[in-house]
Amino acid sequence: MTGASVLVARAPARAAGLLERLRASGHDAVAAPVIERAPAGDPAALNEAVRRLAAGSYAWTAVTSVNAVTALRDAAGRAAVDLARCPTRWAAVGPATRRALEASSLRADLLPADGDPTAAGLVAAFPRPATAEPGTDGDRVLLPLGDLAAATLPDGLAARGWRPDVVTAYRTVRRDLPADVAGRLRAGGFDLVVVASGSAAREVARQGGTATPVVAIGRPSADAARDAGLAVAAVATRPTDDGLAAAVSTALGAAPSGQQHDQHDQPSRPSSKEHP
């Protein structure tokens, strides 16, 4: 199927690469966000966490979104801290967060195994706590998370013997679709909606109803979409523009039915990615 209408539930700037790929394939692709990130209500906790980071209080810092890296960088600026000089190791949930760290002159020392860029995957990749280096707490991990983050990462790390310190780095807030896009969605004017987080999936269902199937960036987002009553047409095998474009092609090429088309072809499990 070609020439389909696809709504990417993301800000146009963030969706630019995917829009280019979809339009090159002949699709009518439109981008509009349903959520946006906002600073934490009180930045004091994050500012203090960054000071502790500089003082060597954390053996690891784990980031699960680009937004968390941005929030840390902003807090470091307010606290006059150079993140690159902090005596901590950095863990990233996937390629995008790794690139965000690298853009801030930070190296990701740990990533999940290929194919599982989720909080659960990051927990599985974490080593057991080792003897502390001089001046550090060898079992403490800083987790700068969004306000809607699931407990998968802190609970999982605690079960492995770590002492996680969760700090709210940013908030997720609702954003209304433009009236024309919302009306088109409710009227069945899109063949697919692409969602890149669980919170986006829930907002798509709330603002546009559940009649239009979705393509999800990963399994946690797909789980949240199903929980919201949306049909999942495909799940990207990788959380990238190429992965999402391939998932759209899979969804549009599948024979219509009442069943979901999951590229992973595995049973659903509870959401474990940081963006719920």
What is the fold's blueprint, element by element?
Blueprint: E1 5-8, H1 12-24, E2 28-31, E3 35-39, H2 44-54, E4 60-63, H3 66-79, E5 89-92, H4 95-103, E6 108-110, H5 119-125, E7 140-146, H6 152-159, E8 163-174, H7 179-186, E9 192-195, H8 198-208, E10 214-216, H9 219-227, E11 232-235, H10 241-253
Parallel strand pairs: 1-2, 1-9, 4-5, 4-7, 5-6, 7-8, 9-10, 10-11
Antiparallel strand pairs: 3-8
Helix pairs in contact: 1-10, 2-3, 5-6, 8-9
Written overview of the protein:
This protein is of the alpha/beta class and 276 residues long. The chain has two domains: 5-34 and 176-253, 3-Layer(aba) Sandwich (Rossmann fold), CATH 3.40.50.10090; 38-172, 3-Layer(aba) Sandwich (Rossmann fold). It has ten helices and eleven strands. It has helices spanning 12-24, 44-54, 66-79, 95-103, 119-125, 152-159, 179-186, 198-208, 219-227, 241-253, and strands at 5-8, 28-31, 35-39, 60-63, 89-92, 108-110, 140-146, 163-174, 192-195, 214-216, 232-235. Strands 3-8-7-4-5-6 form a six-stranded mixed beta sheet. It has a five-stranded parallel beta sheet with strand order 2-1-9-10-11, sandwiched between helices. Helix 6 links the parallel strand 7 and strand 8. Helix 2 packs across helix 3, helix 5 packs parallel to helix 6 and helix 8 runs parallel beside helix 9. The radius of gyration is 19 Å and the shape is elongated. 47% of the residues are buried. Residues 255-276 have low confidence and may be disordered.
